[in-house]
Give the backbone structure.
Amino acid sequence: MKIKKYIIILLFFISACSMEGRKQSSHSDGQWFSEYNLDSSSIKNISFDELIKMEDKESFAIVLSTPDCGACQKAIPSLNTLAFKYELNNIYHINASNIDQKQRAALNALLNNQLKTHDDGSISLLVPSLYTFTNGQIKDSQVGLTDSLKSLEQEYLRILSDM
């Protein structure tokens, strides 16, 4: 019975942060970090089109999130703290609410088909998601939260240390 309860909670969490039917952010790109209660950010906000142009960049990380996702509200400040502390200037943020289905297909190709594709062809994004790239190829990822913020920060450090 306990396992069934945990599975239900896990499914609820995943569906709560799934990207289907999300609203677009009302803040301009210049103020994106205020949606996460941050005064400033070491993470740069970019558009999907800018991400596609970055494929040839040596190494970088992309974080996908939305301001109305509770898990993102915990993850983005932690990631921002690590970026500041370790002077990581190659982490970029994309508001996943602004990625349409055509762009999701392109993103899925960039991520070696790691995203869930439904029978109708639509593609779901789970947030928060952190992906690292080296020479245009995906290297590692962390989707969702871990058991605690401390272990999430450790996982982010592990992923980012190879960049």
